[in-house]
Amino acid sequence: QFTPDGTKIVSYSNDNTIRIWDISSRKQLHVLEGHSAVINTVQLSYDGSKIVSCSSDKTARIWDVLSGQQTQLLEGHSWVVESAEFSSDNSKIVSCSWDNTIRIWDVLSGKQIQLLTGHSNWITKVKFSSNDSKIVSCSYDKSIRIWDVLSGTQLLLLEGHTREIAEVQFISNKSKIISFSYDKTIRIWDALSGQQLQLLEGHTDDIRGIQVSSDDSKIVSYSNDKTIRIWDLLSGKQLQVLEEPNSVNTASISFDGSKIVSGLNNTIRLWDVSSGKQIQVLEGHSGEITTVKFFPKESKILSCSDDSTIRIWDISLERKIQLTEEYPGVTKTLEFSPDGSKIVSGSENKTAQLWDVQSGRQLQIFEGHSDEINGILFLPDGSKVVSYSDDKTIRIWDVLSGKQLHLLKGHSRWIYKVRFSPDGSKLVSCSHDRTIRIWDISSGKQIGLLEGHSADVIEAKFLPDGNKIISCSWDNTIRLWETLSSKQIQIFEGHKNFVDGIQLSSDGSKFVSYSWDATIRVWDISSGRQLFLFEYKDVTEVQFSPDDTTIAACSKDGTIKLWNVLTGKQIQVLEGHSSGVRGIKFSSDGLKIISYSDDKTIRIWDAYSGKQVQILEGHDKHINCIHLSPDGSKLVSCSMDKTMRLWSSNNGKIVDVTETSVVGYIWKVGVQIGLSMKDSIWKNVKGLEDQQKLLVKQRGGKF
Fold first, then answer.
1. Residues 129, 175: Cα–Cα separation, whole Å
2. Do 639 and 693 lie in a common domain?
3. What range does the record give for the signal peptide (predicted)?
4. Is residue 16 pLDDT above 80, yes or no?
5. Domain of 688?
């Protein structure tokens, strides 16, 4: 908690201590020791001069902030003291306990003034009214009670919750009361009459906490149902649902009501209230986050965690926030435009984005899909973008306006691949529904249905003349189809397990396939004859060289192998990756091979010598996709670290790099989800402050 003047922080921990910290120096001022069991609540007096703490040791204690000394021991409760609070004039303290009683204490003498009884189960929260004349309490007995401070008598009994009540507080200048319960509801009550005014329903699991905005217009609630919900206090209507990947431990709304900060597991997220969009991710804690709060007057966040640390985060870096707003989620797929001036990307967050290559600026966002995007591609003339998704649809977008032109529906399960016809007039798609479909791009209508495979169809593509389509499936077969009639012409059999991919030679005379049977096979299309069989386990991708003389394949074993197409002989093994290779690309002249891997690196190889020419490092998690610009000058990559990077060389095209070239990224969009310092060594470091050195050590770095 912040002291009222905003200069200090008060924290309490399962180590049974309370600590007072100076914010500007980050130094600990006092350690308050005395409790012999877990501390449940700490509250500051309104003038910031005193602290009241309550504990499972059955006591409450009053402390002086300036000296750090205990001034009073409040004894009387016979079980766990759950909550305690100062009156607004700082003369009294109210406490509640699992002994089913509420007690009022005199701050100066430490003596008990009143004993309030009536609840039949544990009392979880007590609060004073604004004029200190009343107290509100809530309990596991499912009731809320309002009490007269002077006489200690019960004034009102508020009933309606069907399960234990976790919290209650006065709101709207103390004219209303808000409560939440394990019945998954929030209720608003009239403080004078005790009548229920609003019932807020929507959460599907236990509510962990609520907060009312400083202007009393909104309520923020967070829950085990993996959501944060924003409600209008006056009408009780739900305004926004913010979806998290797990149960939300803690959340807080900023003082101006524009942002929400949340904590779950070891991740902090920042949200925009008006749009409901996530705008920043803060990682660094190594344990469960227990509290997050906004600084009262600064663009900073305070957090504490099970990792035994308290951290202060500066969120004032506008560019960082701006880039995160533009680049949400993990990018799975990307591609350069035909002229190399733009990049289109598709994300797990169901959107596609268009980027300017020169500046890294977002130009368009394509919204419409209801599930994550599996692939995205430019029309050959660069005027349109096609995206396909787990939502079973294909969408065609106008690049200039960002508008959806066509919605292609027909598949009954998710779509694996979409490919253009050579003339750019048609699309072919294949799906988990075992079908292949042909679509007319100008009208968006289905013009062909290819049925015959008995399992998932993993790949389908047009032959160079556009008159035939070739497909592969988990039914262990490859099939050739006539585009116009949609009839099957030929079936290629031989693989003993799922066929995971196929690649065509540039002249369309041959194709190569790879399978779960640990083989790669080269086929002649016209005769249907298998030409070669290469044994290679866990293959992830196969490519023909541009001149069709070489086949390159990569594997989960971290190697890349090259074969001569004419002789069938293995000519190279490229070794260097320390983990599975996800994909490979030939340069347009066939002289270089570019690979990307689970080891977080991209590597450039000389195709003839097999030597590694360059290693591109920077991504912090495995790389999902890479794409070369049409002229070979640049490379774009995306990773599970939530960043996308554009790479270039200091001496011309990236495909022309040598071992002495300097290769780096020109720009990066997205905020990397973790800064890896584990096992890093820091030598001759100057200018780091003590807290920065501590941070390096906490993240596994060594000086």
1. 9
2. no
3. none
4. yes
5. 675-702
